């Protein structure tokens, strides 16, 4: 019988039901054995819908289940640190939805707890597990598009009418930078293999939505005079793209985070479309996580990467609300 990592899920969020749980169930390494909600009826309804064997009516109960190896946490952002640490202290490995916490200090507390307990902690940036990003980094390294001059990233969608959504609760970690801005930020750090030195962000702060940033546009200053320009939003037409601009060419990733996984390279030799296997990124994420837990791989991303990403997010939020350039 194939070895399986046994997962429990805390919360019945849409991302869990629609993407992550099916991804784990379709993975080579994982099985979802339990789900918890704040009430037993919601947990049982979701468990029945997704063919999950066990349902719990509280978050505390699922952490007592000794047949669970790992916990996935898709709760609202302000609950990420609390329930990640509680799961870690219960001896569970933890995959926490992005952003991993409300700030870098919280993220560091989570990392410290995981190191102390000897369990694996990861932030759920599913897109990073697709092999195309490794291929793109190799193309950059090869010099095919010359020296990198800049990166532009976008992630926008329009959900502004759903004013009761948790994304529009400021104290709960609402806003577009937390929700989707983290994607181009993490992608630039991944592609450049470096950390930004300063950020400047302008944002649409909406009183209708508890004064969260509904749209933000920013620039991240990386070493070597390279910048990421990005925009993110929850009150704009849908798009999710990355463009990497070089002195001799460029790479376009039309579906940088979700959607079609092909990309396009423009160079002195012309245009070429690079066809990719259309893989379930959530399954890849589950497999990477399990193999790291089992020691079969060192893991692509150390937990400290999440702390580094949150330092940038902290600076972006500070810049957006103060309308100033912020050094990191």
From TrEMBL:
Record-linked Pfam families: GFO_IDH_MocA, GFO_IDH_MocA_C3
Residue ranges constituting the Gfo/Idh/MocA-like oxidoreductase N-terminal domain according to the UniProt record: 5-122
Matching InterPro entries: Gfo/Idh/MocA-like_OxRdtase_N (IPR000683), Gfo/Idh/MocA_domain (IPR050984), GFO_IDH_MocA-like_dom (IPR055170), NAD(P)-bd_dom_sf (IPR036291)
Keywords from the UniProt entry: Oxidoreductase
Keyword field contains Transcription: no
Keyword hit for Oxidoreductase: yes
Domain named GFO/IDH/MocA-like oxidoreductase: residues: 135-252
Family named by the database record: Belongs to the Gfo/Idh/MocA family.
Protein name as annotated: Gfo/Idh/MocA family protein
């Amino acid at each position: 019988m194939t070895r399986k990592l046994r997962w429990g899920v805390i919360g019945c969020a849409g991302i869990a039901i629609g993407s992550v749980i099916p991804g784990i169930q379709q993975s080579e390494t994982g099985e979802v054995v339990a789900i918890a909600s704040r009430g037993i009826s919601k947990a049982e309804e979701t468990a029945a819908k997704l063919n999950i064997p066990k349902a719990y009516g509280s978050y505390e109960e699922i952490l007592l289940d000794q047949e669970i190896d790992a916990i996935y946490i898709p709760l609202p952002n302000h609950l990420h640190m609390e329930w990640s640490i509680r799961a870690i202290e219960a001896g569970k490995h933890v995959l926490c939805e992005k952003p991993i916490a409300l700030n870098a200090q919280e993220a560091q507390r989570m990392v410290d707890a995981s190191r102390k307990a000897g369990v694996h902690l990861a932030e759920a940036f599913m897109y990073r597990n697709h092999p195309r990003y490794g291929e793109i980094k190799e193309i950059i390294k090869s010099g095919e598009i010359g020296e990198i001059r800049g990166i532009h990233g976008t992630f926008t969608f329009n959900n502004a009418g759903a004013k009761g959504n948790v994304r529009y609760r400021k104290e709960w970690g609402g806003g577009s930078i937390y929700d989707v801005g983290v994607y181009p930020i993490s992608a630039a750090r991944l592609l450049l293999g470096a950390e930004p030195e300063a950020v400047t962000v302008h944002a649409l702060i909406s009183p209708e939505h508890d004064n969260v940033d509904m749209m933000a546009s920013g620039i991240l200053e990386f070493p070597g005079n390279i910048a990421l320009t990005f925009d993110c939003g929850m009150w704009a037409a849908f798009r999710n793209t990355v463009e990497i601009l070089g002195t001799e060419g460029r790479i376009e990733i039309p579906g940088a985070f979700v959607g079609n996984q092909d990309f396009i390279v423009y160079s002195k030799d012309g245009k070429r479309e690079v066809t990719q296997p259309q893989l379930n990124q959530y399954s890849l994420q589950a497999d990477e996580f399990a193999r790291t837990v089992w020691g079969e791989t060192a893991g692509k991303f150390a937990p400290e990467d999440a702390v580094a990403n949150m330092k940038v997010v902290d600076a972006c939020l500070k810049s957006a609300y103060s309308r100033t350039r912020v050094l990191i």
